[in-house]
Amino acid sequence: MPGTSSFLIVANRLPVDRVGEDMWRRSPGGLVTAIAPVLQRREGAWIGWHGAPDERLDPFEHDGMHLIPVPLSEQEVELYYEGFSNATLWPLYHDVVATPVYSRALWDAYRLVNERFARAAAEAAAPDAVVWVQDYQLQLVPAMLRRLRPDVRIGFFLHIPFPPGELFQQLPWRRELLEGLLGADLVGFQRPGGAANFIRLCRKTLGLQYQKHEIYVEDRVVRAEAFPISVDFGELDVLVREPHIVARAQEIRRDLGNPEHVLLGVDRLDYTKGIGQRLKAFGELLADGSIKPGEAVFVQIATPSRERVEEYIRLRDSIELQVGRINGEQGELGQQPVQYLHQSYDRDELAALYLAADVMVVTPLRDGMNLVAKEYISCRHDLRGALVLSEFAGAAEELKQAFMVNPYDVDGLKRTMLTAMRATPHDLSRRMRSLRRRVATYDVDRWAQDFLAALEA
Ligand code: GDG
């Protein structure tokens, strides 16, 4: 029996975190920030795991959204989520910057959990519903759902990069993954390069014919195209003008000792984000005297992430060692050049930090998009502030006026950080004005509208 939702989001996680018995709060993170507003407007439902293992919950309402929890066992969290999603696909899709784990047990769990999500979607979807499946954890759902419900329109969006064939071909289950995605009517990517990689792989691995963005699968046409995700420019632009945010930004600078330059990094603590690279560059600038003691402070917010996955445990140790070394060698009593915070903050505090920072340092080794870069731009209506941006972030395709870097090139990174610190107000405002035009036009609404218009066309 079909369900009643004419619009469905299917994602690994529900867009909420539990804050007490039956108390929920909208969660931070790229995906939620982007999609929650769309769902509220469309009065649809969101299918996803609620975050606690071995627990079944009934559907519930939160913040104007109908939420349908999918249960996961403790073992599935380990094998499907921490395992195949975050120890296999995540590193494979990010240039193999860590070594992917290939294990049949992880794959079996991934398939099983994808099947459960597909069944939940099939039950909730009204006849001819629109179903929008999100991200790398659920790449088999489109084909599984199509088998159960050939009447629905299925879109899929990949938030992380789609790798070139040379890397993707490592995957023992490469055919199954491609076939899973091809169950969708529209497969969206962050960059045109991702769509091109996918199309080429479909031809090479599955022998499918294609023309431009269209792949021919039996009697169907599947479109593969880029839809660069964005942020809620308007909301941030209004928020940072509020007196309490302005006051907090000034207070942050005071607390840091009013240095000439505040540099800022905001990332999940993830090995793709290039946190070690930027700290190395900053540490060397202090050590070689390019930056005088007390002249600059680097604030690094590293939000806790995937804390049980081995690579992440190692990364945390290595970053914390590095921070300790820099502060130990370059600091003075009461003066620490790196302020490292392994904590989560609320939106207001992040906005105040963006406003307080002279130089935003975004240096991923590979990143689907990177919303932090776009959030920083949205907050700088004062046209001050410099964005240092890795050419390997999806955002680099759009944000050409940023100070571009190759994060693997330490000398280049040092030079660019200095250039950004010393840029004239005129240069900064010229760049920021153009960056803001781009993000204001292509905001998150535009992203969702473009994707859904293409899906429903
Ligand atoms: C994936 C892709 C793609 C971070 N710390 C806190 C916090 N955040 C928010 C940021 C930003 C989001 O989380 C992070 O988004 P990113 O895009 O930078 O990175 P991923 O988490 O890796 O996201 C990425 C994205 O999906 C969307 O498609 O851009 O490439 O990897 O919004 O502000 N938010 C709060 N407290 C924190 O401590 N409230």
From TrEMBL:
Alphabetical GO biological process terms: trehalose biosynthetic process
Gene Ontology molecular functions: alpha,alpha-trehalose-phosphate synthase (UDP-forming) activity
Domain of life according to the entry: Bacteria
Record InterPro entries: Glyco_trans_20
Family of this protein: Belongs to the glycosyltransferase 20 family.
Annotated protein name in UniProt: Trehalose-6-phosphate synthase
Native source species: Planobispora rosea
